[in-house]
Each structure stands twice: as C-alpha cells, then as structure tokens.
Write a structure and sequence with these properties.
single chain, elongated
Length: about 150
C-alpha cells in the first residue's frame, strides 16, 4: 500500500477533473479512499480516527506479555482465561499459532512457561485454568488497563 504522503496532488486533481471517483483514484494510487479524501477533499469533515476498544481477552493477553510470557503463550493463557475455567482442546487453543501435531506441543510449552513465570496452577487433566488462576490473570489485566 502506498503512503498518502507519496501521492501527488496534481495527479489527484487531474483525475478528479476527469470525473474519476475517489475509490477509483484510491485504486490507482494504492492508498485507502479515506486517507485520500482526508488529504485532498475539502468537503470531507476532519473526523478523528477512533481505534476500537480492546476486548477483555486482548487486554489479558497484553497484560500477560507484559508480565513476561511470550506472545504465543500469552495468547493461549488468555484464551483459557476467556473460557472461564473450561477445559479446551489444544487444537482450539493453538488456532492461528500452530496446527496439526504441533498444537499440543505449543500448549504444553505455554503451560510450562506460565507455571514457571507466573506460578499458575493448571487443572490436572487437559488445558484449563483453576479458579485461583482466573483471579490472577484478571488482576493482571486490570492492572495493565489501569496503567494505560
């Protein structure tokens, strides 16, 4: 995608004079129509871009990364936390991280890292957090959110 700073104003003015739509010009330049209109269209209101709020699971994941877990381990523990103590299969936990036979290995590694770094105690069978672990992760997420 082209940066809006690299788009020539003369090019945009010539295309608009030929009655090209903003979306067509965006396609020609490789930048988004919204950015193009914000920079070159005087009738476009200057509305600030609002980032969507993070979900509770994303907040927990970022708090876990800040607490010392790797990104993959934090994602797995946050998914377990979001499941509210349910036992989940490794294929579901590792979705988007690892697939096939590697899914179980990634989940086992995440469990070992979480035990070592945060002192989390997992359920005896399968991949699930105990109620005490849920509280620990919730407090980490709350502390991370308060620091933002």
């Amino acid at each position: 995608m082209t940066r809006i700073d690299h788009v020539d104003a003369d090019f945009v003015l010539r295309k608009r004079a030929l009655r090209a739509s903003w979306s067509a010009i965006a396609g020609m330049t490789g930048c988004s129509e919204l950015e193009l209109r914000r920079k070159f269209d005087a009738s476009m209101p200057a509305v600030p871009i609002v980032k969507p709020a993070l979900s509770p699971r994303e907040k927990a994941e970022r708090a876990l990364v800040k607490a010392g877990l790797g990104k993959d381990a934090a994602a797995i523990v946050a998914r377990l936390w979001h499941a509210n103590g349910a036992v989940l299969p490794s294929a579901q936990l590792a979705q988007g991280i690892a697939g096939g036979g590697a899914a179980r290995a990634v989940c086992v590694t995440a469990r070992e890292v979480a035990k070592a770094r945060l002192g989390l105690t997992f359920r005896e069978k399968g991949f699930g957090l105990t109620p005490a672990d849920l509280v620990v992760v919730s407090r980490l997420a709350e502390a991370w959110e308060a620091a933002q």
